[in-house]
Design goal:
Helices cover 71% and strands 0% of the residues. It is mostly helical. It has three domains: 131 residues, no CATH class; 136 residues, Orthogonal Bundle (Helix Hairpins); 38 residues, no CATH class. Helix 1 crosses helix 2, helix 1 crosses helix 5 and helix 3 packs antiparallel against helix 4. The longest helix is centred in the last third of the chain and has 85 residues. The chain is elongated, with a radius of gyration of 36 Å. About 5% of the residues have low confidence.
Length: 342
């Protein structure tokens, strides 16, 4: 969505990913926006003018929820409410396991219930002030015969010449390819931001697990800790391992989506590049043909002028006048050198 060489954000071009915005989605979007601003904040501010994290969060969530770019005012409202919730979400997710961890004799059922409660909190919907979606147009009745092809972006003019019609088709094709390229680049930037947030969450989960494992592997602590506390620490380590695996799975899915977005962006860029190269070759060919045609006309003009000047010295019935036949005209054309090229 956020391209550095653009004058503003662009929609990713993809359909809405989810009809419900969950707490976990708000957290991931908040991490992605912070990652983006930390890495490219000055460049984005220079490109867009005072780039705001809150508005960027609203734009990102609007694209995920509605599949389109919402207005700046609506993005600020959505981002402000989401930004107030995002910093406290991790503590809200962790509170069930923290509560069980404080108990000395927590059972396996209590740990399972805490994990389910955490998952329920993560999947809980968040009410955000998204703008109303435009009403969908009524579905047309099915035609008895195959529908006619849709009109191009630039309608045809009955009075246009074939050359004008060809130029219009080129402009329409360029417009379609550029739109596809911008959409693919926006989707790539969005996928990159989500992948960065998922990677950061995976690293945090991994570090928490390794810290807990290192803490338990300390021989002195193994002698000092009681069996009950050791059981609690073991459950905590298991919980951290599960969270690490879940974060790794999310990161892998985000990385796969990022690879797909890179391929789509590369294909869109190549399609536009091949189209422009084809247009350039066609323009060069037309330019060369026009030059050759102009040279032929100028060569015949110079030949006719030379014959006229030569025969003007003789009377009309003088046998010295030269009236070339068809073969002589051909030989004269092949051997004639232009005095200048137009």
């Amino acid at each position: 969505m956020f391209k550095l060489d653009a004058s503003g954000p662009m929609a990713s071009g993809r359909k809405a990913l989810t009809p419900i915005v969950t707490k976990e989605l708000v957290q991931l979007a908040w991490w992605a926006v912070n990652e983006l601003c930390d890495e490219h904040g000055p460049a984005l501010s220079q490109a867009y003018g005072n780039f705001d994290r809150v508005v960027a969060l609203g734009w990102l969530l609007g694209d995920v929820r509605l599949g389109r770019l919402i207005e700046h005012e609506d993005a600020f409202k959505v981002g402000r409410k989401a930004a107030k919730r995002a910093p406290t979400l991790q503590a809200n997710f962790d509170s069930p396991t923290r509560r069980v961890r404080k108990r000395k004799h927590a059972s396996e059922e209590e740990w399972v219930a805490a994990a389910k409660e955490e998952n329920t909190r993560r999947m809980a919907p968040v009410e955000l002030p998204f703008p109303a979606e435009p009403a969908e147009p009524a579905e047309p009745a099915e035609p008895a015969e195959p529908a006619e092809p849709t009109e191009p972006a630039e309608p045809a003019d009955p009075s246009e010449t074939p050359a004008q019609a060809a130029a219009r088709e080129v402009r329409n094709r360029r417009h379609d390819l550029l739109s596809a390229l911008r959409a693919a680049e926006g989707a790539l930037m969005q996928a990159d931001a989500f992948a960065a947030g998922a990677k950061r969450e995976r690293e945090r989960a991994k570090q928490a697990y390794e810290n807990k494992k290192k803490w338990m592997e300390n021989p002195r602590r193994q002698l000092q800790i009681s069996d009950e506390n050791w059981q609690i620490a073991t459950k905590e380590r298991t919980e951290l391992a599960v969270r690490w695996r879940a974060a790794s799975r999310v990161h892998m899915e985000a990385a796969d989506a990022l690879d797909g977005a890179k391929i789509d962006a590369w294909e869109a860029k190549e399609n536009y590049k091949l189209f422009e190269e084809g247009v350039k070759r066609q323009e060069d060919l037309v330019r060369q043909e026009r030059k050759e045609r102009t040279n032929r006309e100028e060569k015949w003009r110079q030949i006719e002028l030379g014959l006229f000047l030569m025969n003007s010295r003789y009377a009309p019935d003088d046998p010295k006048r030269w009236e070339p036949d068809e073969w002589e005209y051909g030989e004269l054309y092949d051997r004639w050198e232009l005095d200048w090229e137009p």
